[in-house]
Records
---
Amino acid sequence: HLSPRLNAVADFVPLNARLADIGSDHAYLPVNLLLNDKISHAIVGEVAKGPLDNAHHELKKRHLLERADVRLASGLAAINDTDNVDTVTIAGMGGILISNILNAGKQQEKTFKTLVLQPNTDEQIVRRWLTTQHYQIIDETIVQEESHFYEIIAAVVGEQQLSDLDLIFGPYLRVEKTATFVAKWQKESERIALIFKQLQAAGKSDTDTYRQWQLRYNQIQAVIS
Ligand code: SAM
């Protein structure tokens, strides 16, 4: 069974995909998708030896090594042209690292039809990368695990214009405005309210920093109200 976070990633993987899961660690995601016959083949990429061994162990335990290739490589370098990969998942990393991995792949002229990304942070950087690199977001979801909120973004090759609000809050998430989405941004508002207090106590209410936090606070309130 997958965690709610990885389950949401799995939900966005197209049926019968030839998948590459980059930074797979225990390979829980490809194992689940292969066991459920949702995908036909998986490339399991890992940059570190320990996680690579974890992935190999899990796949072997489930007798899935015939339908998966485990590769030690950084980012999309794990994928060869002959793999015919059409879908790439990258989950559980910071948004900047995800963008860097995608950028490095672009330089090797590696393009994949579908990307399913789950940045732990800096979601707006990932969305900006997608729209500037000729991907269009086709769906998004947000899940909560304990006190953490995770956004999952599905994109396919295509063109899309995103506003600043779309980049920050997500073009689908900000319209759907689920209870989980509101809770995430409510939590961020509370964090900013504490920052206001600290700045006020330090006599820094009349500063650009203060005004920038105020803008962000007001923007969040407008989106979730
Ligand atoms: N994807 C799994 C998940 O979402 O549960 C595991 C996430 S784990 C926190 C991040 C993994 O990414 C680590 O195992 C790490 O070794 C791997 N990683 C970090 N940078 C990478 C890179 N450039 N290429 C491949 N894997 C990378």
---
Amino acid sequence: HTMFAARRALSGAIQQRAFSASARDLSKVTVLGAAGGIGQPLSLLLKLNPRVTDLALYDIRLAPGVAADISHINTKSLVTGYEAGEKGLDAALQDAEIVLIPAGVPRKPGMTRDDLFNTNASIVRDLAKAAAKSAPNAKILVISNPVNSTVPIVAEIFKKAGVYNPKRLFGVTTLDVVRASRFVSEIKKTDPVDENIVVVGGHSGVTIVPLFSQSAHQDLVGEPALLKRVQFGGDEVVAAKDGAGSATLSMAMAGARFAESLLKAAQGEKGVIEPTFIDSPLYKDQGVDFFASKVELGPDGVAQIYDVGKIDAKEQELLDACLADLKKNIEKGVKFVAENP
Ligand code: NAD
Ligand code: LMR
């Protein structure tokens, strides 16, 4: 606390005056995995966001370097890079309002997201332990794959630490919405900014369920090539990068957009709605404890969860397939923490 306060005091009288004393207006955002393919452009976009007042960058390598570079950008926020290790991690997390987690390995061609589980589960578990200790009230935004399993891992760790609040844990599925909206605009020759396709379920293959019936383009329901692009858009990028990783730049944009939505909602804006993968009551009766659907965001995180609403029969089939897969992915995450606490 004191280090954070001291740094803030040093950051200049003009800046001090520009911000009100209200804690709401002081928004520290922390990126864990900040030197990676996603982490670097994500940190850059967060530095450009005037709602962010403190930007804390942590990685097991290069975070101080990335922070030094980004800190020269002439926006108000204070950027700090932390050394690898427990001390740096705890300091990066202290007082954070939002913690974004893009730490972990990306796919190579031929891999599914689930193939990343063995490596990324323990990375996310360990970062979640640190967050439960040093930022128990932060909103946690999980980007690391497989999201369908890493989000339940964070939930289990927070439960064990006695600090779990389901309103503050989010799997970031914004990229699916971004892609669906872009792909539709390519077909319909519309402005992609005006498209906002609802995507529900999870974040991998058949668990990704776009609801074109709820858009202005009913005729796109059941269009096989479009559905495949939305469900396997990640694979397009993995193939094109040919062994050098997966989506990083579009993901950085999507992560920055979701963080911005949470900051807007925290600062009092109403009607901020984003699909996101959360601890959800919608399909708990079917044994599916986490589900992405439209969520209204508020100052405390999740304000209201929307059910999927009226959907086409073809979409219902997709949803049934989604739920079957999702259940297994979620159970895998929960089992991992039980067996590897
Ligand atoms: P990357 O390898 O380029 O970067 C990952 C970074 O994490 C590296 O800098 C690495 O040093 C760091 N890291 C590893 N272990 C760490 C730890 N214990 N603490 C802190 N940092 C650690 O990978 P990338 O392309 O940035 O992808 C990161 C993850 O995001 C992957 O799992 C990928 O599958 C996932 N991803 C998710 C989405 C989504 O829509 N949710 C989209 C794209 C990628
Ligand atoms: C994506 O959707 O691009 C990410 O989940 C990365 C991947 O592995 O496809």
